[in-house]
Amino acid sequence: MISIQSFTFSPIQENTYVLYDETKQAVIIDPGCYDERERSALAHFIEQKELTPVKLLNTHCHLDHIFGNAFVSEKYNLKPEFNQYDQVVFDAFLPSCQMYNLNGEVSPPAGNFLNEGDLVTFGNSSLEIFFTPGHSPGSITFYNRDQKFMIAGDVLFYGSIGRTDLPGGNFETLIDSIQTKLFSLSDDYKVYSGHGPVTTIGFERNNNPFL
What we know:
Blueprint: E1 3-9, E2 14-20, E3 25-29, H1 36-48, E4 52-57, H2 63-66, H3 69-76, E5 80-82, H4 87-91, H5 93-99, E6 112-113, E7 119-122, E8 125-131, E9 140-144, E10 149-153, E11 156-157, E12 160-161, H6 171-180, E13 190-193, E14 199-200, H7 201-207
Parallel strand pairs: 3-4, 4-5, 5-6, 10-13
Antiparallel strand pairs: 1-2, 2-3, 7-8, 8-9, 9-10, 11-12, 13-14
């Protein structure tokens, strides 16, 4: 069974997730740890739980979701995995940091590109992938059918959706991603978003003003 631990990191208040199961293997999704205190908090949790990180996954590559890529890559000898259409976003990391007057350490290049239909495995567990562009050109969502949850990045939030005014964003594409991919799942799926609290597909289907 997959356990999910969340952290809220950086001045942008991004949600970082560590998923692990009874084998103690773990995946780190969207490490946004920005400073030494936040990097220590992530490492301390992993050490305390005696976990072995085996994957570094990015739902997309906006700066707040990859602040910690370099740290995680170096500490656990992992390379990030994301969708190839977000390579252009990945490459804009340092200019984006400079634009917002934020510090940033460049992430190592992708070790693998992820696509819809791929299966991410760790321990006794697995995650399926939806291709959900719109917030960024290569946004992906990780989901698990057995436990009915998804790690949705900045595609869908509690009562809101991801912004589409950044380079590569598109409002119509994002709405289509949500309605044809995420809303194909049942109402009881939990949605772990890139910012803000956990929600459900049912709540957003019935209450989200954008949908």
